[in-house]
């Protein structure tokens, strides 16, 4: 089981609320861009999935972290049903696994421990829902910003997945036992 870490005096973590979604817009648009152009469809789809997780009975769970001084969310992460393309990466065919859905930290908060706070809380929530592991990949555009972090949090990738993010993409797959 993953130990939860004290969030200390810096951040508070809570469930995503409807109002948070638009407050996260600048962060989502910053991350979901390539060569200076925002991937509008990705932003829209991510916001819609977040809204669905709030409004419906749904397995997806999103959390946000805020600076303890208040203000808009400084980061968001979510977990939920494992995409079937990740089934071969489970530790066993019967292992109940969650997928990491979203992981975005506002640029001004990068390098301050917020990602670790959020991912450990995601691991805790997945474990509390009966999952034995969390499995995920990361878009190749985040090779320089996220892949090292994910390796630090889950160990070396257990394989690669081809074509998950776009035709011809090849990205690592991480699995974290809970």
Largest sheet: 7 strands, mixed
- What strand line-up does the widest sheet have? 1-4-5-6-7-9-8
Strand content: 25-35%
Helix content: 25-40%
Contiguous runs where pLDDT drops below 50 for at least 5 residues: 1-6
Molecular shape: globular
Distance between the termini: 5 Å
CATH architecture label of the domain at 11-132: 3-Layer(aba) Sandwich
- The CATH first-level class of the domain at 11-132 comes to Alpha Beta
CATH topology description of the domain at 11-132: Aminopeptidase
Compressed to H and E, one letter per element, the order equals: EHHEEHEEEHEHEE
Radius of gyration: 15 Å
Structural class: alpha+beta
The number of helical runs is 5
What is the CATH homology-level superfamily of the domain at 11-132?
Answer: Gcn5-related N-acetyltransferase (GNAT)
Note down, in words, how this protein is organized.
The protein has 178 residues and is α+β, with helices and mostly antiparallel strands. Helix content is 29%, strand content 28%. The protein has a domain at 11-132: Gcn5-related N-acetyltransferase (GNAT) (Aminopeptidase, 3-Layer(aba) Sandwich), CATH 3.40.630. It has helices at 18-23, 25-31, 40-55, 114-128, 147-154; strands at residues 11-15, 33-34, 37-38, 61-67, 75-81, 97-105, 133-137, 159-162, 170-177. The strands form 2 sheets. The chain has a 7-stranded mixed sheet with strand order 1-4-5-6-7-9-8, sandwiched between helices. A two-stranded antiparallel sheet has the order 2-3. A hairpin with a 7-residue loop joins strand 4 (61-67) and strand 5 (75-81). The protein starts with 10 loop residues before the first strand and ends with a strand. 33% of the residues are buried. Residues 1-6 have low confidence and may be disordered.
